[in-house]
Specification:
About 50% of the residues lie in helices and about 10% in strands. It has a 6-stranded parallel β-sheet. β5, α5 and β6 form a beta-alpha-beta unit.
Length: about 240
């Protein structure tokens, strides 16, 4: 298996989890999977950050499994997390997701996936491998949290479908084809998306802007595409 973070036969996985038994089980789960090994386990996010920054780049973790620590210990700072992600760290959130506000901020920071502690362990491992491949993995529970984002404009189903398709890279003509409408109608959906985001103080003028906002809202993932009936639209 070729790893883009450095040499070796394993993906290096770090774990941040303040609950001792949960941390031990997460370590056991990762170490029991082929091609993975735990390179460090930490009680708090600041503990991990100090370790990460003090470690040679060639030895740093490829991926962090992160508990948001919303009830015990210091919370995760989304700005610091964003810096680490920009530096190349992949992040999978494994959390009870008790704080919708924090979850939204963490998603906007650019994490690759979010799973709940009530999810099946097979799903957790599948999510981990997806994020290592730089794919996205979000659960229905997360989608429900994001849907309640007070800062996110309320879009109709067709407007949201058009946003997801266009932000995914499709041309206007292709968006219209997938939606089964005329190009002028598809353009109208996108124009209304732009108007609604502008009214919310979040201007989206280009496809890049739409991609950014769709990612912040957690819309560019397989679960959302299935919910919107777009799983056969993969262009």
């Amino acid at each position: 298996m070729q790893h883009d973070g450095g040499p070796g036969d394993y993906w290096r996985i770090a774990v941040v989890e303040d609950h001792l038994l949960q941390r031990a089980r997460t370590i056991e789960l990762v170490n029991g999977a082929p091609g993975l090994r735990v390179a460090g386990a930490f009680e708090t996010f600041p503990d991990f950050v100090r370790h990460y920054r003090a470690t040679d780049r060639r030895e740093r973790a490829h991926l962090l499994i992160l508990d948001l620590l919303v009830e015990r210990g210091p919370a995760v700072d989304p700005d610091v997390l964003r810096e680490l992600i920009d530096d190349g760290l992949r992040v999978l959130v494994l959390s009870a997701m008790a704080s919708p506000v924090l979850v939204r901020e963490i998603v906007r920071a650019g994490v690759g996936g979010v799973v709940g502690k009530r999810d099946q362990e097979s799903d957790i491992l599948a999510a981990l491998m997806a994020v290592l491949r730089r794919e996205e993995w979000h659960t229905a529970e997360l989608a429900g949290i994001l849907a309640g984002d007070p800062d996110r404009p309320r879009l109709s189903d067709q407007e949201e479908r058009a946003l997801v398709l266009y932000a995914s890279g499709l041309t206007l003509a292709a968006v219209a084809e997938v939606l089964g409408v005329k190009p002028d109608t598809a353009k109208g959906y996108l124009d209304r998306v732009k108007t609604k985001y502008a009214a919310a103080g979040r201007a989206v003028r280009t496809k890049v802007d739409m991609n950014r906002e769709a990612r912040r809202a957690g819309l560019l993932n397989a679960w959302t595409r299935r919910r919107l009936g777009l799983d056969d639209a993969g262009r």
